[in-house]
Specification:
The structure holds two protein chains of two kinds. By secondary structure, chain A is of the alpha/beta class. Helices cover about 35% and strands about 25% of the residues of chain A. The chains are: A alpha/beta, B alpha/beta.
């Protein structure tokens, strides 16, 4: 296994004469929490879609989880995890049914599914909730389960798209502690957020403006570079210079 | 008489008690914030006060009018911007504005001075269909439409959710302008850092109000010593700190962790106990709205 899980060079996506993503290049190392920030309309979503194998770049090169971003979108989809605040679990299915459904989608065998779901239930202390409808679980539990399911096939990297939007401050922190723990265990995390305090929790942060990656470093070095007190200030300094809106 | 007066308002959807005996008042010309996460009951409260649904228990008045008896009069006086974009995507910017003006029996010209600071920013796109606007422009159009009949009270349900930090702060500047013009504003947000832009706030969670005060008053209510701590390995620090004597709570807070101490806490002893953790630093910290929210939630 390579130590670089995502590696892209000059990744570009054009829609007609509009360049949504303009030659972005970066590497994400194994076990990193990589924060992917940008103003609305900066091209974050388009870039994420390319990295997740949902859309092919117009030009550039790179790999995600060892697969070619220009050619192997299908393989990429199978080898990454994905979780967003908007779409995560089915409320009308039980805890166990949700795990089984996603394990099936990720192509795990029956035996693997049995093993992994038992493991997930035990790790989360959820064994007693196996047959509970997900809709009736408290938000914090749902989020933990959602993350566990996004990683049930042991992906090399998990993409979290605004995982904590609208979540209360206590649950939001519990979620981040889980991310810390997963990263300590070697899972690579690629995360987007609008909460600037969460940017501070990342190993490294990239900030997109007008389709380009304008800054990329550890939060501490970014603050130094922009002579800022907080990541919020760094973000504002960069985003204010944006030429295009959403 | 307050601009908004709410008495023990409750509303359930089946078994879910969305709003559980909420009371508060908003004064004329006040910018009042409802701060809380999803499921706090903010949208239910907006729907009740704009007379779109009726309460199970309790009562409320808006501009002195009862939300159940006087619902038709209330609708003429309030402006409402729901959380989800609810203009007509197939009408142009200008057609949407004219449509809402017609509904309220006014003309765009009559209200132009009020909406101008906001509307001018999207006027260059007045022939574009609303569905083709960017998120920020949709938000400005929705606000213009909500203001077209010069409402005395404006209800804004999470206008900044999912919006980046810079656009969010621009939106709050627009609200400050409207407040200057005497409009009472009730606005909700899940972002704690926006609370300081309000005159007063109510912290809401799971259908209840945890506390109401000015932003300064809220943080003054934090009655425990608070420290910010850091170390080379922040995750290890978190786990260790929680086990130390006199540590009531410890949680990530941006680049540092916040540590809430009880009477038995001693800084020097804490540092000594964590001597094996590399680079431990501890300094006194000022509580924020978010610290108070966490404290109230834990209780």
């Amino acid at each position: 296994m390579s130590d670089v899980v995502i590696s892209v060079r000059d990744l570009t996506k054009r829609f007609g004469d509009f360049t949504a993503v303009d030659r972005i290049s970066f590497d994400v190392r194994r076990g990193e929490i990589f924060g992917f920030l940008g103003a609305n309309g900066a091209g974050k979503t388009t870039a994420m879609r390319m990295l997740c194998g949902l859309s092919y770049p117009t030009s550039g090169s790179g790999t995600v989880a060892g697969y070619d971003v220009m050619l192997e979108g299908e393989q990429i989809k199978r080898h990454i995890g994905y979780m967003s605040q908007r779409f995560s679990l089915y409320n009308n299915l039980t805890v166990w049914e949700n795990i089984r459904l996603f394990a099936g989608i990720y192509g795990l065998s029956k035996k693997q599914t049995e093993e992994r779901s038992a493991e997930v239930l035990e790790r989360l202390n959820f064994s007693s909730e196996r047959n509970t409808l997900v809709g009736s679980l408290p938000l914090g539990w749902k989020q933990k389960l959602s993350f566990a399911i996004a990683t049930v096939h042991r992906p090399e990297v998990v993409f979290l798209d605004e995982p904590t939007g609208g979540v209360d401050p206590v649950t939001r922190r519990q979620f981040w502690e889980m991310i810390y723990e997963a990263a300590e265990g070697g899972t690579t995390i690629f995360v987007t957020t609008h909460y600037m305090d969460e940017a501070e929790y990342c190993s490294r942060v990239s900030i997109m403006v007008d389709g380009e990656v304008r800054a990329l470093d550890t939060p501490a070095r970014l603050k130094q570079q922009f002579a800022a007190e907080s990541m919020d200030e760094v973000f504002r300094t960069l985003a204010r210079g944006a030429q295009r809106g959403e | 008489m307050s601009a908004i007066d709410v008495h023990s308002l409750s509303k359930s959807y089946g078994k879910v008690r969305a709003l559980d005996g909420v009371s508060f008042a908003v004064e004329h010309g006040e910018l009042f914030g409802l701060i809380g996460p999803d499921g706090a009951g903010k949208t239910t409260l907006f729907r009740l006060l704009t007379t779109l649904i009726n309460p199970d228990e309790g009562s409320a008045t808006v501009d002195g009018l009862d939300i159940e008896k006087d619902y038709l009069s209330i609708r003429k006086r309030v402006g409402y911007m729901p959380g989800r974009f609810s203009l007509y995507p197939d009408l142009s910017v200008e057609e949407n504005l004219q449509f809402f003006a017609a509904l309220f029996g006014v003309t765009v010209e009559e209200s132009y001075d009020l909406i101008a600071p906001i509307y001018k920013q999207i006027e260059p796109f007045r022939t574009r269909r609303a569905g083709k606007l960017s998120g920020g422009m949709k938000q400005k159009l929705a606000l213009s439409c909500a203001l077209i009949h010069r409402p005395s009270v404006l209800f804004l349900d999470e206008p900044t959710t999912g919006v980046d930090a810079v656009s969010r702060s621009e939106f709050w500047d627009m609200l400050a302008d409207l407040k200057e013009r005497g409009i009472t504003i009730l606005v909700s947000t899940p972002y704690m850092d926006e609370a300081k832009r309000c005159d007063r706030i109510a912290l809401c969670n799971e259908g209840r109000i945890l506390g109401i005060d000015t932003p300064t008053g809220i943080v003054q209510g934090f009655d425990k010593p608070l420290y910010s701590i850091s170390a080379k390995n922040m995750f290890a620090l978190l786990e260790r700190a929680r086990r130390e004597e006199g540590v009531e709570d410890c949680y990530p807070f941006g680049e540092k962790h916040h540590l809430v101490a009880s009477a038995g806490f001693d800084e020097e002893r804490f540092k000594a106990a964590l001597a094996d953790v590399e680079g431990v630093e501890i300094v006194s910290a000022e509580p924020t709205i978010e610290d108070m929210f966490i404290k109230l939630m834990r209780r």
